[in-house]
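quick one before i forget lol
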Amino acid sequence: MMNFSLQSFKKKFISFLSQEDSIYHVLSYILSSIVLPSLPIIWFIVFMKEKMIFSYDFFTNGMFGLSVFFFFSLVLLLILGFIYVGSIAFFIIYLYQKNNPKDSNSNIKYTLIYLFIINIIMIILTLNHILESQSNIYIYVFIFIFNFFLFIYLGIVYAGKGLHKFIALISFIVVLIWSSVKFHDIISSFIESGLFQFRAGGNIKTEILDKNITLSKGELLLLTPNKIFIKDDKNNTRIYNRNNIIIKLKNIK
């Protein structure tokens, strides 16, 4: 009985491996489960390099906070991406369904058209805003490039075959690595603005006290489970242990 079960499992496993599409599905799953969860760590390392600081306890004791912070930041980035380039994912799905009439859905075509119009309008409004306010255009370039490849990947993941998904994932990982190097200052600013909203950094005006004695005043760079990183009035970076330390943050309106 046991021998029969092993033989049956062996045949099914060999049959599964013989399906090329299934192999690429498994490879995509393994690779994405390794690389994508590492993205917040990579971006925070980029941020720390820009600020010339590093915190071991942030990655050992602060992973839950890091995950929560990055989740909300990524949701914001995805919303912006959907506004600017969301039609790309539906265009990819439409192309796949066009080649596979059995999977065709007329709603995809109309959704693509409506979303494409919205994307064009939002891009024009954003370009007008950049020209009028002289904002840093590289921030929008990074958001556009990141989401352009992300929504191509999402479209292929939804409708593509295993090999296509694997190639799309590899391409997206390459873009992630390239953008992290090319737009390191933009990523740092993105993380900084998120820290500001969570009041855990972002150059908030801060006063450090110990038993009501002021130790330092300056801008809060990063607040970790065990450390306080602050840039003082002389532009020096100071690091304090959080034990018995009072942190006074300037009110944000």
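fyi Residues 20-195 form one domain.
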